[in-house]
Design goal:
Strand order of the largest sheet: 4-3-2-5-1-6-8-7
Largest sheet: 8 strands, mixed
Order of helices and strands: EHEHHEEHEHEEE
Strand content: 15-25%
Shape: globular
Radius of gyration: 16 Å
Length: 191
């Protein structure tokens, strides 16, 4: 069985929208504006790329990342080379870019559950706020790799839904604090 890992930059109040400067959000670029850069805080990002065997994205994140990441050969060599899965009911094969390696479209959460039952290494989920909420609500996420930033953003897309559901316990498996206020929190989902 494969492990499904969500990785996210998240504000203290749970917002994950536009951390890197994506247009359309009033607080866009909040991960680097007014926060001192500390290379140590991003160590986990490199490790994730080395440890993941595949990447999963929702349609919106796929369309945003696929137009940029393939040209970032140094920063994302591992991600660019690994298989990708896009969860979408609307994306068509003709919408996939040709220069980003093997990409498979999954049409439902049932398809994600079936993929998790196959052999292979961890699958990492990047961006994809809506997909992450749906995967979490369906109990499909096995681990959360979070970099929590010392900001309150108020409105914005959130990592977790407001769905009324049973409690889900998490086990802290790794944590670290950095001088710029960022907290690394890695949680395993308790089953």
């Amino acid at each position: 069985m494969r492990t499904l890992i969500t990785t996210a930059f998240v504000s203290l109040d749970g917002v994950v929208e536009a951390p890197g400067g994506e247009p359309g959000y009033r607080n866009t670029g909040w991960t680097f504006k007014d926060i001192e850069f500390d290379e140590a805080a991003y160590e986990m990002k490199g490790r994730e790329q080395d440890e993941a065997a595949a990447m999963m994205l929702g349609r919106v994140s796929y369309q945003a990342f696929s137009s940029v990441w393939p040209s970032m050969t140094e920063e994302f060599a591992g991600y660019n080379a690994m298989p990708k899965y896009v969860v979408s009911s609307t994306l068509q094969e003709s919408d996939l870019v040709a220069n980003w390696g093997e990409t498979t479209i999954l049409r439902s959460l049932d398809d994600v559950a079936a993929l998790k039952q196959t052999e292979g290494g961890p699958i990492i989920v990047h961006g994809s706020a809506t997909l992450n909420r749906n995967l979490s609500d369906a109990g499909l996420i096995d681990q959360y790799n979070l970099l929590v930033f010392p900001v309150l953003l108020g409105a914005g897309k959130r990592l977790f839904s407001a769905t009324d559901k049973d409690k889900q316990s998490l086990k802290l498996v790794e944590s670290e604090s950095y001088r710029n206020g960022i907290q690394k929190l890695v949680y395993a989902v308790v089953r």
